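Human:
Focus on the backbone:
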Amino acid sequence: MNVDLGKVERDIYLRTQQRDLVMGLSDPRRPTPKLWPGKVNAYRSLTFYLEPNTDYFDTFFSKVVDPIWLEQSDDPHADALRQARQTGTMSECWRIFHRVTFVSRILPDLVDTAALPLERTLKELDIDSNYELIKLLEPFVAGKLTNYAEFAQAIRDTLKTYPPEL
């Protein structure tokens, strides 16, 4: 399966109305572009091929395809679907099941003192999103991904020493 992300917005940096980058000055010697709070900086998805089943035929024509479009459109795709929809018989159809399983957004600036403790700590450590936290911890757990108990222990051991604030 090929997934095309060409239309996904890739610019996650905060900009002025003139489209100039807004620079963060937390370290005046090394200004860096500020990230736009709320923008998605990472996500993960899973796609499954489900074995053919006659129930998928009915689901496709009753819940996926717009019945008005199917009946009234001159589109060649609608014509092809009308021909595929055979009355009295339901073919076994395959199905693709696609789910986004993780989304990471840039954390907002902390102006609210009631922010969640984890978000507050991440911002204090200059970690701007959950994805950045995952990338920070990744080297410490890389060899422990097949066993949950080892993985969980590696996370606990890492957080005791680096960064202990978490």
